[in-house]
Design brief:
Blueprint (H helix, E strand, L loop, with lengths): L4 E2 L13 H10 L4 E10 L7 H9 L5 E2 L2 H21 L4 E9 L6 H12 L3 E5 L2 E3 L5 E3 H6 L2 H19 L12 E2 L13 H13 L4 E4 H6 L2 H14 L3 E4 L12 H10 L5 E2 L5 H5 L5
Parallel strand pairs: 1-2, 2-3, 2-4, 4-5, 5-8, 9-10, 10-11
Antiparallel strand pairs: 6-7
Helix pairs in contact: 3-4, 6-7, 7-9
The chain binds zinc ion (2 copies).
One zinc ion binds next to loops.
Length: 289
């Protein structure tokens, strides 16, 4: 049994390497019934002041970092039009318009994202936390946390997970949408930053609010499986709902390690796993066509 959906993907024009159509063709060849696009929706008034913005400019993907919501909406409108046209062409697949939205604590974030979601009407929104907010100085990413001096690094890592706990407890009541699940909650591990107690505390908080998480294989690829095995046990204990994901930034990554992910989940007794497309609605409330 393998997974027949892929919902965490990125495309050309954002920070992915392939076009929407190339991604669809690759997903279809791999037997996917559902393919969702989840490009980065990142709006922060001072994002361009951040150190990482310079890297993004040189890397050619700086348009994913927006200080204006209108710019982000413009980018997504073109992309969604494209995807909706392709949906008419590839009718044997369930093709979805999603987004991976960064959560921030600045004043006005609620209004900004509510407005964007109303305008764009995505089929699902993955919540993500790639940054620590530094107000007028912009944001810090996980590389900045790792590269800080040792004392600051530990403090910042703690702050990262404290923010994640605030995200878990976020009040969605007067929002027009809710995150369908949380992407790579253990993102700092990607750069080798581990903080067992805070990882566990965050998972406990996410479970308290029944927020589903994804098991994202790109983290396992780069890191020692043993570092993660402890997290899998905790997820199993808490019974958190789990979505399988790959965070594909190109065609090669689509569904690349889904089988090993399912095997690992089984080994650790994780039962609440969304395996098939027809479970998505119940598990994470994704709109389907
Ligand atoms: Zn990305
Ligand atoms: Zn991400």
């Amino acid at each position: 049994m393998t997974t027949d959906y892929s919902l965490h993907t990125h495309t050309f024009g954002f920070d992915g390497r392939n076009t929407e159509e190339q991604m669809i063709i690759a997903a279809r060849a791999r037997g996917m019934k559902t393919l969702g696009f989840s490009n980065h929706f990142i709006v922060h008034p001072y994002i361009k002041k951040s150190r990482m913005y310079g890297y993004a400019v040189r890397g050619g993907y700086s348009n994913i970092y927006n200080d204006s919501v209108e710019n982000a909406i413009k980018l997504f409108s073109v992309h969604y039009d494209n995807v909706r046209n392709l949906r008419e062409k590839y009718t044997d697949m369930n093709i979805l318009c999603g987004m991976e939205m960064d959560w921030f604590q600045y004043d006005g974030w609620r209004d900004v994202v509510n407005y964007a979601v109303r305008r764009l009407n995505p089929d699902y929104v993955i919540g993500a936390m790639h940054f620590i907010d530094r107000g007028p100085d912009g944001v810090l990413n996980v590389h900045d946390i790792r590269n800080a001096n040792p004392r600051d690094s530990g403090r910042l890592l703690r702050e990262y997970y404290q923010n994640l706990m605030k995200l878990a407890a976020f009040d969605w009541r007067d929002m027009g949408f809710k995150f369908n699940w949380i992407a790579h909650f253990d993102l700092p591990k990607k750069v080798g930053l581990n903080y067992r107690d805070m990882e566990h505390a965050s998972l406990t908080e996410l479970a308290k609010y029944q927020m589903p998480i994804e098991l994202n294989l790109s983290l396992i690829m780069n890191h020692n499986y043993l570092i993660l095995s402890d997290i899998f046990d905790k997820i199993s204990d808490l019974g958190l709902p789990v979505v399988i994901s790959d965070d594909a930034h190109d065609t090669a990554r689509i569904g690349a390690d889904f089988d090993s992910m399912l095997r690992i989940a089984g080994t650790h007794g994780i039962k609440n796993v969304c395996v098939k497309s027809d479970m998505l609605k119940k598990f994470v409330g994704v709109r389907t066509y």
